[in-house]
Amino acid sequence: MLSIPETTLSARAVAPGLSPAIAAVPAMVAFEGVTKRFADRGGQGEFTALAGVDYTVPKGAITGIIGRSGAGKSTLIRLVNGLEQPTSGTVLVDGVDVTALSERGLRDLRREVGMIFQHFNLLSSRTVFNNVALPLEIAGLTAKAIRTRVELLLDLVGLSDKAKRYPAELSGGQKQRVGIARALSTEPKLLLSDEATSALDPETTQSILDLIRRINRELGLTVLLITHEMEVVKSIASEVAVIDKGLIVEAGRTFDVFTRPKHETTRALLSGLAGTKLPDAIARRLTSEASSAARVYTRLTFYGATAEQPLISRLMSELGAEVNIITGTIDEIAGEPYGSLVISYPAEPAIVARADAFYAETGLSTEVLGYGA
Amino acid sequence: MAPDMLLALLWKALVQTVQMVAVAGLIGTLIGLPIGVFLATSGKGELFAAPLVNRITGLIVNATRSTPFIILVVAIIPFTRLIAGTSIGTSAAIVPLTIATIPFVARLIEAAIREVDRGLIEAARAMGASRWQIVTKVLIAEAKPGITLALTLTLVSLIGYSAMVGAVGGGGLGDLGIRYGYQRFMPEVMLAVVIVLILLVQAVQSAGDSLARRFDKRSRKT
Prior knowledge:
The structure holds two protein chains of two kinds.
Chain A: H1 6-14, H2 20-23, E1 27-39, E2 46-58, E3 62-66, H3 73-80, E4 88-93, E5 96-97, H4 103-110, E6 113-117, H5 128-139, H6 143-156, H7 172-184, E7 190-194, H8 202-219, E8 222-227, H9 230-236, E9 239-244, E10 247-253, H10 254-259, H11 264-270, H12 280-285, E11 295-303, H13 311-319, E12 324-333, E13 336-346, H14 349-362, E14 365-372
Helix pairs in contact in A: 5-6, 5-7, 6-7, 7-8, 13-14
Chain B: H1 3-41, H2 51-66, H3 69-75, H4 77-84, H5 90-114, H6 118-126, H7 131-142, H8 144-164, H9 173-183, H10 187-215
Helix pairs in contact in B: 1-5, 1-8, 1-9, 2-5, 4-5, 5-8, 6-7, 8-10, 9-10
């Protein structure tokens, strides 16, 4: 197994559009050589959940850690607030070594780190108000201070009218809003999200993500989320790390990682995103063998300046050949416009040469997918 | 038997039964509840992880529960005499009743606490709750409907057990039924005793059920 390539990490510092000022943002969370092994349930052998993770989560941003189930992401996020202890390595939260904290010290840290969960984990015996009040009760605030704070938070998440309801009377989205209010009650500097939208329908997911984005902007709260859904990362995370078999295999600005994925795991996860996949009927007909009698299928990717120019109409006149548009998508990744278009044109050498010249001149990012009728 | 005499006997026996059940139930719960919480939270990797003590406690609980009650009553007579100063009568009967109640309550409370979603413990830990706060604010609070039903079941079982201590002169409804109804061939006394017991159990069960329903907020009320 490879450890994380140095180049992947350092790529962040030189990534286009990332100013040195941003690159110098201090870390909110830093994983240094973190491993975690669990004793196997059968008693024989061990299970390695994390195999040596080095990664830093920048302050003030929304960072997504994405991976398949069993990749180690749940374990990783639980190390941040000490719900799990690493087998080796250190975890720093705002400069404090979590692994060196006493039980008492951990409890203080946890008041500065809020957490939301996939299944909300609300107390069924408490009203919405009292659920949000729980962390404040635990911290020992007065009833009056609790009331003021809870009312403010319920207003923030738009649930003031549900204060006296019980969780069983709420929808999934409302429950997660309560979870968010509860996580924010002790005014944390870091919010951990453990698959917070995985149990929600797409529309509700979007509204919860909007809320998290708003909290990040308005309160300046750092957010670290883990998910297996690319859509979640694409929608709100400005930074992303891809985890596979206990290792971070790729990391960087979400836009860079998503538009130019390097690792096969990233590509595999991205293939689920709408608009990036060829229709099956066409994909089946394609071969990788070039033939001038066939048509070449090419994916054009637009971002930055190229996203705003009339490139397709120029390409058509430049090639002097008929261009078919197969599939395409226009989207936003972490707030930046992004387009992907699959086209086909005759694979005659002269036409292909003209096309390549055009791509070089305009700086379009292209990928030949194959050849077919 | 004259109706007023029967009533006087029934009343006296009822008071004794209620006394035995109430005192044994109260003391048994006071001791059994913490043991139950301990059993539910001291397994490997749990909140108060102490697997060995957990195992030993479990063994003692099982041993006490598997001893037939009537044998327990006789077996602990020296202990009863030590505590109550006598081995016969209502207050003496309370001792074995309490001893039998403790493990019974402990197992039922353990089961009720184990019903609480593990995710809630994790959430509470993530909030910075101490272990004691997790027990009081999360586990017991969330298990309240289950605990209420467990204690209801305990009281109902105690009413049944209390009938058996008539064998050692414990008094109560069971004693009345055996001595008058069975040994003196007075079927009307037996019938009266059975009816009073049914009403008593019914009342306890209904009260417990409705209390548990009131505590239970897990389902949407219409």
